[in-house]
Amino acid sequence: MSEVNHSMKKVINDPERVVDEMLEGLLLAHSDKLKSIRVDNRSLVRIDAPVKDKVGIVTGGGSGHLPLFLGYVGKGMLDGVAVGDIFQSPSSQQMLDVIRAVNTGAGVLALYGNYGGDVMNFDMASDLADMENIRVESVVATDDIASMPKGGEEKRRGVAGMFYMYKLASAKAEQGASLEEVKRIAEKANASVRTMGVALSPCTLPEVGRPTFTIKDNEMEIGMGIHGEPGVKKGKIESADSIAETLVSSILEDMPIEKGNNVSVLINGLGATPLEELYIVYRKVHHMLADRGIEIHNRYIGEFATSLEMVGLSVSILKLDDELKELIDEPFSTPFFSQN
Amino acid sequence: MSEVNHSMKKVINDPERVVDEMLEGLLLAHSDKLKSIRVDNRSLVRIDAPVKDKVGIVTGGGSGHLPLFLGYVGKGMLDGVAVGDIFQSPSSQQMLDVIRAVNTGAGVLALYGNYGGDVMNFDMASDLADMENIRVESVVATDDIASMPKGGEEKRRGVAGMFYMYKLASAKAEQGASLEEVKRIAEKANASVRTMGVALSPCTLPEVGRPTFTIKDNEMEIGMGIHGEPGVKKGKIESADSIAETLVSSILEDMPIEKGNNVSVLINGLGATPLEELYIVYRKVHHMLADRGIEIHNRYIGEFATSLEMVGLSVSILKLDDELKELIDEPFSTPFFSQN
Amino acid sequence: MTMKFTAKDLLTYLKNVVEVMEENKDYLCELDRKLGDGDHGVTMSIGWQAINEKLQDELKDEEDCGRICITTGRTFLSAVGSSVGPLYATGFLRGAKVVQNKTEVTGEDVKEFWIAFIEGIKERGQAEVGDKTMVDTLQPALESLKELQSTEDFVEGFAKVVAAAKTGMESTKDLLSKRGRSSRLGERSIGNQDPGATSAYLILETFHQTITANQTV
Amino acid sequence: MTMKFTAKDLLTYLKNVVEVMEENKDYLCELDRKLGDGDHGVTMSIGWQAINEKLQDELKDEEDCGRICITTGRTFLSAVGSSVGPLYATGFLRGAKVVQNKTEVTGEDVKEFWIAFIEGIKERGQAEVGDKTMVDTLQPALESLKELQSTEDFVEGFAKVVAAAKTGMESTKDLLSKRGRSSRLGERSIGNQDPGATSAYLILETFHQTITANQTV
Ligand SMILES: Nc1ncnc2c1ncn2[C@@H]1O[C@H](COP(=O)(O)OP(=O)(O)O)[C@@H](O)[C@H]1O
Ligand SMILES: Nc1ncnc2c1ncn2[C@@H]1O[C@H](COP(=O)(O)OP(=O)(O)O)[C@@H](O)[C@H]1O
Ligand SMILES: [Mg+2]
Ligand SMILES: [Mg+2]
Ligand SMILES: [Mg+2]
Ligand SMILES: [Mg+2]
């Protein structure tokens, strides 16, 4: 067992066992909603999986982003998740086990972020599932506009906007739609959402014990990734209004939204930024959209995809048509969220 | 307007306007669930208030603790809240306005934490309401065992365990119970819950711009209050298990719980502590209670009462009898939470 | 304790307090800057200016001392958000009960008014002597008030009350703050006079000035 | 490219890799400590030890080269969680298709096996030459493999493949990492040889040793 680095402001035991102990706690707490299908607890499915005749939807990714990824497994949401170490992809085997466990014969859709390790392992898992005659399709989230300029959309990373892909595809699957239909919705969701964020401080990996990079005392980084990937602009910390302005106008430049259109807005805290500040940002985002005659159909404000205790937030905007609007209003319930 | 202190890792505009802008954002976001009854937005009530024939339940307190206090206003929960500046009591007038707005003639119950300013202003507001023939009763939360040794229970502060008082009294009121009955439940809830927490780092008030006190790099403080009030013990940061052990055994010493008893457990993050760590702590708490033959009826894990971006957490344990068990399972829904 | 004090005199007194608070606005803020959030002068000014409006308007011809005090207390409360709002408001509301339905009051009534005023504040704030608050001014004043004999001249007697209040106010310099915002400063609070103790002194002192002027006319 | 390579030889080769990985465990970890999380040697050891168990058990008398490769790939994958799990597993699974249902393979088959092996890894990992990964070892090897003439001696030809792989492996020292864990180090990644490039070289080099030994016997 490794020693706890005592200058780390973390409530943990052995830094190497953070994920195992987190999962143990989670399963003790939510045994009515989730079950583990591997002895290492790295593959979790909703308690009623496989859900008869339904297309199975799975995800996976590194730990340290709660409620992402496992927080989205539940009724009206995802069927299963493979859980990696902090900021590390789960293994193909763990993904394959999830795919098997949620498969009902209707096929399985894998939804995950566009990160090398996750893509490689999910591709591998799909190949293996294919050898067992399980139909697997994938849609990779690419909502982070800061990670690659326009034109390189398919190389962008997936961040908080992934929530919408999960939500909408899951609602469609819950209605009994086919794998093709559910995949179409996931692709449409991904094509209709854009995210951009700002980080004011880094986070500390438990195994490392100190921040893996630094942001100066009076600085922030626009567009930094959720693992600390470099952003598009470093600079002095700006006001909430000017940050909101930068994020929203970058999003609207990348994905123009017409007057009269409906959107859903997601204000996501990265970990240490208080809810109070998310509402201050929402205020400005609301005014900006209202000024442009854009209708906010609904909004999600809170922590949806974190980076441990990073200070910062992101704004996601989802363009809604009638089909997506109907799906976004569907209820769901996981140990972390519920919508009636 | 005051200048933003740029070495503060906060996404805000004018530090003096943090609460006003937060409230503006909140009301823009949740106009379907909350309404403001004062031009300064400092008094909020649920959208359907006053709820016919129901005992009104109100709370109030300083800002900087979201989702406390205003996050508990909603269906199956509180009727109204008075909102103060960061860590400051709201005014008696703001409280009086809330009391008036939720009064249906069935009387109003004020539930709040045991802090000088809040007590003084709620007492004042009750006197004024009384002069208008509105029956007001109060129950003051005193769940923080670290704030005063056994024997001085009534001088203890109210912290995260206040959630249970809100939840249980509200469920009782929703059933149509009388003011006396609802008050009895609030008192029973407060008498049946104990909380103890640990802080690993302080937080920074926006108007001040730097931490109001410090905790050494490798230190933590057991029992620190949610405004930084001194705790019972400073020391080196300990492991999650040993922290959980200290918190749970202190609670059980203060309020013995017998084998076979039912409890509800609340693991509350103070702001910057990741959810992952709360689950690591839950794991140990679960094992400790299970080892003693105590039955965990349900649990709440997340942020329920924060101190801006303080690093740390608290554990609350509520002793349940049949009456409280029935009430705790009742559904509720606010912009911040819902339970089906 | 022969003294005649009418509703008109009460209105004059309140007007005098408005002026005194305006004159001492910066001084009170300066004291609060060292101990709290620097707003005590502004707070008092806002509260008393609101009262001033009432004095010029609905209270202009009011003859019931009780109603004057109730309006004063309520107005102060709704104008002021900070700690002193409910404290001074309670003072006036409790005092109002003593003088209700009276157009003219005696020295005995005035004594009882101030006793109720101070006890109301003590009850509301739950501060104790030595906590470095306005109670350090008010408690010695209360004790001195209680000792006033029905045989002595009220104006002279009240001079002793104000003197006790002054000593109390000055004692706050050397105290460690235990209540309100300044309690966060701990040791650093020592050495500065408490702003609330100061405004409480001004309120009493202005009353003495008012009745003295009244007498000499 | 006359060469006879049987399922037995394949099993011997795999056994040899098991040994080589055990011998180089510390070395690979040391390389990974400078660039990543220091586990590459342990990872390879775990994976190949798992394969070793299969070699001693269900693969002991296996005569189908395809099935041997499939089991090797799958075993490696389920034993290993890190990046190299799917990479090497894909290599063996893709190679398996070339040699399926064969008990004995020709030099031409072996060439095609390694081409499929390397192309599988490239496809799986999407790394490019210069990214500082095992692809820097494998790409030159692939090009060298493709140039092998059907007329030349396979063992001699494969020596050139290994030489190209070695040059590729050594080139990673001066590269800036762009893939996997080590990419986080940025500039600091320069100056150290990539662990995956090293284990990939060992896999090819051990194959050359195996066929050389085979020939001389
Ligand atoms: N509980 C209390 N009892 C009596 N006086 C108090 C109490 N709390 C605060 N005060 C007084 O209030 C004064 C501060 O008033 P003010 O600055 O207007 O309010 P705030 O502290 O809310 O800014 C203090 O100097 C102190 O004398
Ligand atoms: N996308 C990729 N394509 C090819 N090789 C890769 C890729 N990502 C990582 N690698 C190789 O994997 C090696 C690291 O392996 P290992 O330490 O076992 O995995 P991990 O990085 O998960 O700890 C690197 O040295 C590199 O050669
Ligand atoms: Mg002040
Ligand atoms: Mg103030
Ligand atoms: Mg490694
Ligand atoms: Mg590794």
Task: Give a structural overview.
Chains A, B: Homodimer. The dihydroxyacetone kinase complex is composed of a homodimer of DhaM, a homodimer of DhaK and the subunit DhaL. Chains A, B: Its EC number is 2.7.1.121. Chains A, B: One of its GO terms (molecular function) is phosphoenolpyruvate-glycerone phosphotransferase activity. Chains A, B: This is phosphoenolpyruvate--glycerone phosphotransferase. The complex is a heterotetramer, with two copies of chain A (340 residues) and two copies of chain C (217 residues). Chain A has 340 residues and is α/β, with parallel strands linked by helices. Chain A has two domains: 15-192, Dihydroxyacetone kinase, domain 1 (Rossmann fold, 3-Layer(aba) Sandwich); 193-325, Hypothetical Protein Tm841, Chain: A,domain 3 (2-Layer Sandwich), CATH 3.30.1180. In chain A, 31% of the residues lie in helices and 24% in strands. Chain A is built from eight helices and 14 strands. A six-stranded mixed beta sheet of chain A has the order 1-2-4-3-5-6, sandwiched between helices. In chain A, strand 10, helix 7 (275-291) and strand 11 (295-302) form a beta-alpha-beta unit. Chain A is globular, with a radius of gyration of 19 Å. The termini of chain A are far apart. Chain C has a two-stranded antiparallel ribbon with strand order 1-2. Chain C is mainly α and 217 residues long. In chain C, helix 2 packs antiparallel against helix 3 (40-56), helix 2 runs antiparallel to helix 9 and helix 3 (40-56) crosses helix 4 (65-79). Chain C has one domain (5-216): Serine Threonine Protein Phosphatase 5, Tetratricopeptide repeat. Chains in contact: A-B, A-D, B-C. Chains A and B meet through helix 1, strand 7, helix 6, helix 7 and strand 11 of A and helix 1, strand 7, helix 6, helix 7 and strand 11 of B. One adenosine-5'-diphosphate binds next to helix 3, helix 5 and helix 9 of chain C.
